[in-house]
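A quick aside before the break. I want you to see a complete sequence-to-structure record at least once, exactly as it would be stored in a machine-readable document. Don't worry about memorizing anything.
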Amino acid sequence: METKLHIFLFVLTASALFDFSDAQIGAAYGRNANNLPSPSDIVRLYNNNNIRRMRIYNPDQETLQALRGTNIELIIGVPNSDLQSIANSQDAANTWVRNNIQNYGNVQFRYIAVGNEVSPIRSETSHYVQFLLPAMQNIQNAVNGAGLGGRIRVTTAIETGLIGNSYPPQDGAFRNDVLYFITPIVQFLSRNSSPLLTNVHPYFSYIYNKAQISLPYALFTGDGVVAGGVRYQNLFYAIYDSVVAAVQRVGGGGINIVVSETGWPSDGGDTTSVDNARTYVTNLLRRVNDGTPLRPGRPIETYVFTIVDENLKNPEYEKYWGVFYSNLQAKFPINFN
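That is the input. The structure line, written in C-alpha cells, reads:
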C-alpha cells in the first residue's frame, strides 16, 4: 500500500473524491467550530460525495432546513444538557419532538440519539446518568404519540470505556460498576427494536496501549492477531465484537450495534498525520461490509467522524478529525475501485 501522500493531492476539489454509496456508510457532522461552511454547503458536500447518512449532535435548525427534501438519512441528537428537562416532563419531550421532528416532515430521520457518551464513570457526564433512561422513554412516548414509532428509532450513543473486559472480544463484558446503568438501557432498546449506538475509536486504544497494540493492527494494514482462538484482522473488529458480546451478556443479543463515530485525527497529537487518517478511513470503508467474527457477513452501519475539522475543540488533536478541511477541500482521496 502506498504510504506517502503527495502535496498536490491536498488541493483537489471536494467533489468526486469519495464514494460513500454503500447504504451502511455515513459521516458525522460536528459543529464545534467558528469557521464552518454553511449547513447548505455541508449538505451539498454530502450529496456531491454520495454520502447518504448524517449524524448531528443537536437539533440545529439551519441544518434541518438544509436537509429538507434530500434523501440523506439523519441521526439527530438530544444534547446531554437537555436530558434533565426532558426526563422530568413528558410535555417537554413532546415539544422537542414536535419542534425538531414533526416540523420537518420531509427530512429523513433515522434515529434520535438521546444523549452522547453519558457514563457513570466519567465525571463530566455522570450527573446525567439518572436522566438518560427517563429521557429516552419520554422521547419514545412522544415519537409513538406522533405516529412515528415504526419509522424513527430512539437510542443513545455510548463510549467503549463502559466495557470492562474486551479480550478476547468474544468474552466482552461491561464493567460491573456500570451494569445498573447500561442493563435497563439495553432492555429498553430490545423492547423497542432499536439499535445501540457506539463510538468506536481505535486511535485512543492504540495511543494508550502501544506496548500491546501495533499501529498496523489499528490501521487495518497488518495480518491481525489471534484472540481466544479467533483471528482478528484489525482493532476495529475486535472493539466492535467486544461490545456485541457485552450487550449479549445483558440480554441484548438481538440488538444491532451501530458505529456512530470512528475516525483518525490528521494532526495535533501522537501518531496523527494525514497519511494515517487516510489509511484508517480508506481501509475502514473497505472493511465495514465484511462483518466481524461474531457477526460474519453482516455489514456494520458506520459513521465516519467527522466530515470537517472543528477548530474550537480541545485538546489540539480534537480539532483535526475531519475528512475535509473547513474550506471543503478534501484532505485525501479515497479510491474504492
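Two observations worth writing down. The radius of gyration is 19 Å. The chain has ten helices and twelve strands. We'll return to this after the break.
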